[in-house]
Amino acid sequence: MVCAMYYDDTLIHKVAIEGRLDRQLRIEGWDQSALDRAKIGIVGDDDLLTSLYVMSASALGINDVVAVAPVLDESLIATAKKVNTRLSITHMVGFYTHPVMDDIFIGCDLIVDLSQYGLANKLLLEKGFREGLPIIRGFCYENDDEQGFRVFTYVRGREWQELEQIVSPNNLPRRHFDDGVLDIIVSGIALEETKNILMGQELSEDMISYERKKLGAITGEPNILVTGSGALGVFVGLGLAYAGLQNTTFMDPDITDLTNLNRQVFLYEAVGTSKAGTLSRRLNRLFGTNTNAEVAYFTKNTDITTFNTIFDCVDNFETRIVMSEKCKDQKKILISGGTNVDAGQVVIYDPKKDDNTPAELLGLYDIVDQRQVDAQPRDRASCTYHPDPSVIMTNQIVAGLMVDSYRMLLDGQEPINIFYNSTSNGRI
Q: Which of 1, 247, 248, 368 is least enclosed, having the fewest CB within 10 Å?
């Protein structure tokens, strides 16, 4: 009787895991078992980057993580454990400063170096060369009037002539530039490279980089509407919170489905409840934001007069056309994002400078083959109707780029439309 009960509980648990991971299990050639059995080492600093990587890795289904870092963000690690109840985290508190600490990495398939001091960078590159262990290096930086990030994956045999570009000039741990929005992007790209290593897929041959002018302090309190509270909406909300933009309303008619949870990390333990409501409440609790929720469809009749900016995080072309037309008519800034398994884009509409909306630039009218459209009501979650493959990485990368583009607009800079492709060198 005890054995039967154990079998039933195990079977139920297995079904729940497969349900949560369903959307990535649909990807052609996907090898979830490679993630299940992987052990990942992480070297970090006293910033957000390590914790964001752990949270996203847990959602992807990586279960065994060891980290050397002076601190981990409690709220992000708690989220990681609730998203993936199988997650095991071994945390050595401190900095990685000597090979004597290597025992913690025994059995690791790769090491993700997110640190900001040259000693760790050099020790890990030497370890990677000596042991044939892949080292994924990712970090944010600030130089003079420039801010950005770099990600590069080192494997033995790739003796890259510009390797010094990924070694920090600060030999020992010290205070350094960190940016939560850029961290979201870096952790997503590092996780994409992690997945590629574990599944034997192609890595980027080039250093993946992104740079822009240094941002000034944000002035004012823009009123923001985020349409869609799925994977893009979750990470846009997180990015806005890190950017200090607090007056946000999330609009989404859908309820959380089990299959959402491989990428919609703040909707854990919320199956059957409102996506927008859950996301708003959790961001307010975790980050002290002042967000609201509206459980509704975005239609031609949606009132956007009180909002300065609209973030398009929806998953259908009809609603995107409606949004573009309303923003053009009412002269609202529109930040439009879209993703699939391998790629995504960020298209900016600034009514002061742009003539064409995202719907026009992306040719959405030709896709839907009609000029006058409206969003069609649905009875269930959109992902139930559109069971397309989906992963966390492209969503968090594009969401982070959406928020950073908006910060550039607020700073008086001129962001360009961005296209990300995880299968091309350089990616961005």
A: 1
242 and 199 in a common domain: no
**255 vs 215: CA distance, rounded Å:** 37
pLDDT in tens, 190-217: 999 999 999 999 999 889 999 999 999 9
- Predicted confidence band of residue 164 (pLDDT cuts 50, 70, 90): confident
Domain carrying residue 378: 224-421
pTM of the shown model: 0.93
> What is the number of structural domains in the chain?
2
Helix axis angle, 180-198 to 49-60, nearest 10°: 40
* 128-151 mean pLDDT: 96
Is the pLDDT at 372 greater than 70, yes or no? no
Helices (H), 199-312: 231-242, 275-287
Residues 42 and 188 in one domain: yes
Same domain for 198 and 123, yes or no, is yes
Q: Are 221 and 247 in contact (CB under 8 A)?
A: yes
The answer to whether residue 340 sits within a structural domain is yes
